[in-house]
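Posting for a labmate who doesn't have an account.
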Amino acid sequence: MSFSSEIKEELSRQKLGARHCRIAELAAMLTLGAGVCVSDFGRYRLKIQTENLSVARKYFTLLKKTFNIEVELSIRQNKGHGSRVCTVCVKRQEDALKVLQAARLTGEENPGTGRILLPDSLVVQQTCCKRAFLRGAFLAAGSVSDPQKFYHLEFTCANMPEAQLVQSLLAAFRLDARIIPRKKYFVAYLKEGDQIADALNVMEAHNALMALENVRILKDMRNTVNRKVNCEAANIHKTVSASVKQIEDIRYIRDTIGFGELSDALSQMAHIRLAHPDATLKELGMLLTPQVGKSGVNHRLRKLSEIASELRDNKEEKL
């Protein structure tokens, strides 16, 4: 089961809330997932089709428990693709109009789509109703990518007003959703892990939220370990490179003028470095007599490098 399916399964099994929240959730499912069918005789009926049985079950339960009306649920198996199509239908016009009026969705249909207009703002006036609407919107048109791969949550809407409504409701919870056109649809989406976690919390998908947070913790731990390993590797490479350069300079001094021309401190430093090529600055300082700190060791090694550089320059001038 995909992560999106797990979330929808969790949302579909939530206990029904207050009537106004149920209506808000239904309004979202009707707006983003269902259609108003009008017969030749001008009679209304509601129908939603989905491949997700959990969504169909939640839609069916909301209609039955909220309005106590006659609702039909049918499941058809597609032999060719192996998938199933669940259809929930309210055929009686009186019942369909009761639902539409309660959800404040009456009005003209959107031309050519068979979809109903957006709900009145009164339906999502309360915070709990905003949460319920977003739950219904996700059940009808939402999806989340596998967090093991990347973070992406989206709502696929038939038109821009629907996407803007979802965007505004997410914004009410300080979630910054973006909208992009995709083929004939408009997609409101979130890309950051923090925002997706907050969205799951808003929809009260707490099990999915914990699963996402566990993945994020593991990813952060891996990233932290990788950063430390890369940093240590870079430091080791830097230390080794510096040591190789220092030894080259010291050997050049030895082979040209010898250590006898150096001060006692620099001569001792040169001998210690050649004898301990893998030692750190701190370790080199402890080997000196008297012992010297890291800054003192670094100063002496830098002075040796300067002397080697001068000797090379003088040799080139003579040539």
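Reply:
Got it, the structure tokens are right above this. The chain has two domains: 3-204, 220-318.
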